[in-house]
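User: Study the shape:
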Amino acid sequence: MGRIEWAMWANEQALAAGLILVTGGIVAVSAQFKGWEFAAYAIAAGVFVCLLEYPRGKRKKGSTMERCGQKYLTAVVKVFGPLTRNYYVRAILHAGLAVPAGCLLSTILGTVCLAIASGIYLLAAIRGEEWHPIEPKPWERQEMGTTIKHPPTNPPPRPPAETRRKQADEEAQGNVLQTAHCEKGLGLEATCSKSAPGLPKVGGGSPASKQSFIAPRDEEA
């Protein structure tokens, strides 16, 4: 079983807590509840938490899917260095932000969620986890020869690989034997033409030449 990365769970929990704080604060301020000043504080704290937690951190193993448009906030979070990279700082920060919002009933749910996120961040910090930005991979240009795949030459159904290999070997052997026979045939024709250059070829020549060749035999008879 793989190791659990608690920072990912804390990130999702803190982002949800920020949204709940903003929602509860808007309800309390619009209705002018008693102590609505704490609700206004909850709105500001919720917006700050959402901006801080929106960019996901990079996982140690595997790939991490970015949130839409998080690269712009990632550049801002990176500026603060260890203050945003260290999860001990985030745990203390979220715990401190959750305390004042607990004074109002409409924002107490967001307070509890933010306190849970603070505890998970503390566990992630104890296990040695840190926030690392998701850097875009450099774009590599691929050559055309490596991307284009040649289509198969044999139409389906295709025989197994071993059968195709045997067929190729047999065809190669047949071509070699045919070439050897042709070379032998050419050699015999060359030797016959050298030994008897005046004799006509078998099956060749014109009919007149055949008659002139047979005529002296008739006269002798």
Summary: The CA atoms of residues 87 and 125 lie 5 Å apart. Residues 194-221 have pLDDT under 50 and may be disordered. The first helix runs from residue 6 to 31.
